[in-house]
Amino acid sequence: MLDVGSNTVHLLVVDARRGGHPTPMSSTKASLRLAEAIDGEGKITRKGADKLVSTIDEFARIATSSGCAELMAFATSAVRDATNSEELLARVREQTGVELKVLSGVDESRLTFLAVRRWYGWSAGRIINIDIGGGSLELSNGVDEEPEVALSLPLGAGRLTREWLPDDPPGRRRVAMLRDWLATELADAGAEILKAGAPDLAVATSKTFRSLARLTGAAPSGAGPRVKRTLTATGLRQVIAFISRMTAADRAELEGVSADRAPQIVAGALVAEASMKALGIETVDICPWALREGLILRRLDSEADANGFVGVDGSADDPASVQTIVRNA
């Protein structure tokens, strides 16, 4: 899978098969900060486009050499919001041969919810999910694999850092202003999500939430994906008070915070806090699966439906294994 996000381009080689869980085989990342390469007219600059094209070309070659049977390439908010996105997509296609698909914000929300549902299963009941990317925030609520309500808001950690917190460290007044503004912005969205029903389980996905949970004492990534990790509203408030006084360089020294994420982790924490408050949530479980896994699962489902592999009794024939390449903003 080739994921073009607001901050990074991520190539993830996955061993995936119908009826099985997607298993990551290798991962390659490049920090392009594409959202920062947008000019005053909303266009991705020539320099930014050049870097994107060369990176996609390089990663497509890696995919081929890795023996991948299929390349799934997608882009999220940075490309979606650019006023020259069609021109950029055409250039990528012509110069690399890669068909880059732009996902809508609602599709991001829906596919992430699918991954969460598959991870926790039907016994989890009604799930509310929160996902914070570089350019957007996705919220969803449902009891099935398709959420009853799925929203996408332009409240990503990178976007808000650029618009609200340009100083390093961010000023206390600006942090307070952003906190108040987010509360207002999320009031209606929170009400719409909750209208579908109160959750049996509140879940959070994305690198931002994983980093915040680690800062509050959750197990490190090396402990494996199946270790239970949570983030509480109380712990989150304590983390915000701590990291908002630090420079990005100092935050990058904290365990669980990468150098790429350090500049925007304060804004991400404020979005997390405001989202949980708007939804009346005190604790979220951190799910290791998110958009990428949702895309793979939907692709495998579509393949099974198209070929008639799933029978009336739910059995599946020919559970062929497929290697595919599957986004953090």
UniProtKB/TrEMBL annotation:
Q: Which SUPFAM superfamilies match?
A: Actin-like ATPase domain
Give the catalytic activity: [phosphate](n) + H2O = [phosphate](n-1) + phosphate + H(+)
Q: Which InterPro entries match?
A: ATPase_NBD (IPR043129), GppA/Ppx_hydrolase (IPR050273), Ppx_GppA_N (IPR003695)
Q: Which GO terms describe its molecular function?
A: exopolyphosphatase activity
Source organism's superkingdom? Bacteria
> Where in this chain does the record put each Ppx/GppA phosphatase N-terminal domain?
13-302
Q: What class of enzyme is it?
A: hydrolase
Print the keywords alphabetically: Hydrolase
**Enzyme Commission number, as recorded:** 3.6.1.11
Q: Which family does it belong to?
A: Belongs to the GppA/Ppx family.
Q: What's the name of the protein?
A: Exopolyphosphatase 1
Question: What is the protein's species of origin?
Answer: Mycolicibacterium phlei DSM 43239 = CCUG 21000
